[in-house]
Design a protein that fits this description.
This is TadE-like domain-containing protein. The chain is of the alpha+beta class. It is built from three helices and three strands. It has a three-stranded antiparallel sheet with strand order 1-2-3, covered by helices on one side. A hairpin with a 3-residue loop joins strand 1 and strand 2.
């Protein structure tokens, strides 16, 4: 008693369990396809996540520098302290930042404080430099 040749046998599959072989092949091919997609997609997702972290750290550093410049200008304008005291105010506020430089320009009517700093970024590509100028009217 011989079995007639069916299309699955002609393709090199046995009649017995041919369905499981076809299903297994489809699953294996799908797994390969999914792993290839993840191999391409994972570095892109990592780059996006690291870029967002980098942007957040930079924005936080810029916010600190802005607040330090505003506080130094306001303190110097209201209380008439010296430029050295304004630099101390900036140094106290920008503790984690690197290469902090403060320049004060005092005229008859206003005080301008410029703060330059470098934000320590996880992936430093030279974009960590921040410069902020704050101007405040001088109290008479």
């Amino acid at each position: 008693m011989s079995n007639p040749i069916c299309p699955s046998e002609a393709a090199g599959r046995t009649r017995r369990g041919s369905r499981s072989v076809v299903v297994r092949r489809r699953r294996d091919e799908r797994g390969l396809s999914e792993s290839l997609q993840w191999a391409v997609l994972a570095p892109v997702l990592m780059l996006i996540v690291l870029g967002l972290i980098e942007a957040g750290v930079w924005l936080h550093g810029r916010s600190i520098v802005q607040q330090a410049a505003l506080t130094a200008a306001e303190t110097q304008a209201l209380s008439g302290i010296s430029s050295d005291a304004a630099e101390k105010v900036v140094a106290d506020m920008t503790g984690q930042l690197e290469a902090v430089r403060t320049h004060s320009l005092v005229s008859d009517t206003e005080i301008s404080v410029t703060v330059e700093a470098t934000v320590p970024l996880p992936l430093d590509v030279g974009l960590g430099d921040v410069t902020v100028t704050a101007t405040r009217a001088k109290e008479q």
